[in-house]
Amino acid sequence: MKSVIVPNPNPNESHILRNPRTRTEADLTSYSDIKTAYDIFWNAAKSAPNNPYLGRRPFDPATGTFGPYVFQTYGQVAERVQNLASGIIHIHQKALPEEQRQQAQSQRNFPIAIYSINRPEWAIAERACFTQSLYSVSLYDTLGDSSVEYILNHSESSIIICSLDKVSNLLNVCHNTPLLKAIISMDSFGENPNKPGIPSPFNINSVSVLKAWAASKNIALYDIYDVEAIGKASPIPHHPPSPSDLYTICYTSGTTGDPKGAVSNHHAYTFAAKSVHDHSQPEGTPVTFSYLPLAHCYERTVENLTTLNFGSIGYYTGDLTKLIDDCQQLQPTIFPGVPRVLNRLYDRMTAATVNAPGLTGKLARKAYADKLANLKSGKGNKHFLWDRILFKKLQAVVSKRLDIVISGSAPLDPNILDFLRIALLCRMSEGYGLTETSGMGVIQPGNEFTSGDVGIPTPGVLVKLIDVPEMNYFSTDKPCPRGELCLKGSNVFTEYYKDEEKTAEAFGQDRWFMTGDIARFNPDGTVSIIDRKKNIFKLSQGEYLAPEKIENILSKHPLVMQSFVYGNSFKNSIVGIVVPDPETFVPWASKIAQDGKSDIDSLVKNPKVIAAFLSKLDSAAEKAKLAGFEKIKALYLESKPFDIETNCLLTPTMKLKRADAAKYYAGVIDDLYTNVN
């Protein structure tokens, strides 16, 4: 399937690409009567009330283990959603001063913050929001206190629904969030609060302490079952939203400062689900595995797609190291992926097959080579012999029912993409989307097997390129146009909340969204992401440099786990801070050091090791054909990984906070430049 080229008369811009199935959004073939997220859910609840919907693995405190998945049906979830929605309206009114309560009876379109890992109550809370035309404000489970305070204040949230372990955190900072009036725990304050989604120790005696603490802070504290009971006793008729009504404020990762609140309406997310449906066409009734943060738009679009098809959603147990165990229990048909998860799956599978010693490895390499040749010649990813002997066993590591695996959020190595297509025996696509585009926009067709690209625009989405002369990317480049990727479609957000300046910067002429990513239009009609514009800086000699491009190249080296490349307009070279991968680094570095020390803290300080490591990075840069000014001239090896909670150098979506890293390593950077000079 190839993109259709649409002429574009604007100078310094490429032609426009669209999906061959649609000229406009009106051409979407499915669900024309579905206009809002409210419609998506309530249509499914009325059409398939007995279908299993939201599933979790119950935790047994006696054995410390999780059991098989147990599902609530669409009908059961609908009843809870109705009751919770009514209860929220009642407690919102109760939290207001007496003179405002009468007016508040008709008030809608106020925010409800949601703060927890993925779990059924997250979905129930959001569906309760749009049943009464309220909108959600999502908080990543990993956020620190300062980010929680910022988002609650910036969004003006008065009610938050959270997992039980977050209640004490919120009470601890509520003196800095004066608008917060009520906290709703997703977990019962009853006899057995030990449920999945509560990672910290908790016992029933803590409830009275929490309630007293909340009362002293003038915060109303409920559990979700209390609020559902209030709503059941005094039901309020549905107040359905219109397509233009606010659906969510989804806060960006905040890599360069305070996170921006991307405002999206119901039309955006409903269009996103319908467009992905038309593009991917899930087979049968889907079963989706949910573990990527619901605070991000990508996972919510996947869940809306599942609900659109009356499918089931199974939530992980909260432990990322047990994803495979959860999958084997659930047997999903749809697996949303990100490179850091898929890379680990690849490592596990290749270690047992193509990288295995002896006859096992020899046979696996032959099987893989045969299937790879078929894949590259357009014969697909199935093989009558090798699948029976080997690859069905690999597929069963994840799920015997896999239909679709989608990789997003960052580039996936083409070799890994090819291997997983061969091993998992399913449609596997790499896609591209952002918070501002409802997590979608460009996706590989599942029945095609290209690599090194992110596919074609989904139905109803348009893309084009704009020249970036400071980085030497032009729409007239031969053989392929290159430039900043711009998207247009109903999936694009409305604005950044309370930030007219950033909103204006985000949109070009005719409200084309400027992604900040550099792309190439390939001869086969696909799009490849090749660089990043937003984080570029100029060196003192006038050369522009994109650190993320260099970091992506370094991250592919087996010795590298994380990296931070730094430079500025007062320097003529760049320096690097690299966190080595202990598994590969320690044995390699021990041979270089030859001083009898094998602990990573000692090895990263060894001058011989640092010099040898820098030489390895130079070789990687040469292989990637980086220019001389794109090569690291001085290196610091860091034994402690960048993380979210300890050194706070990563966002909740695992992106590097570049400004924070520059401050954190300011002294190190000064020393590195001293060595360069």
TrEMBL record:
Residues annotated as signal peptide: none
SUPFAM superfamilies associated with the record? Acetyl-CoA synthetase-like
Q: Where is the AMP-binding enzyme C-terminal domain?
A: 549-618
Q: Which UniProt keywords apply?
A: ATP-binding, Nucleotide-binding
Region feature Disordered, mapped onto this chain: 1-25
All residue ranges annotated as the AMP-dependent synthetase/ligase domain in the record: 67-497
MF GO annotations: ATP binding; long-chain fatty acid-CoA ligase activity
InterPro entries listed in its UniProt record: AMP-bd_C, AMP-binding_CS, AMP-dep_synth/lig_dom, ANL_N_sf
Gene3D superfamilies tied to this protein: N-terminal domain of ligase-like
User: What domain of life is recorded for the organism?
Assistant: Eukaryota
One Gene Ontology cellular component annotation? membrane
Write down what this protein is called.
Answer: AMP-dependent synthetase/ligase domain-containing protein
Organism lineage string: Eukaryota, Fungi, Fungi incertae sedis, Zoopagomycota, Kickxellomycotina
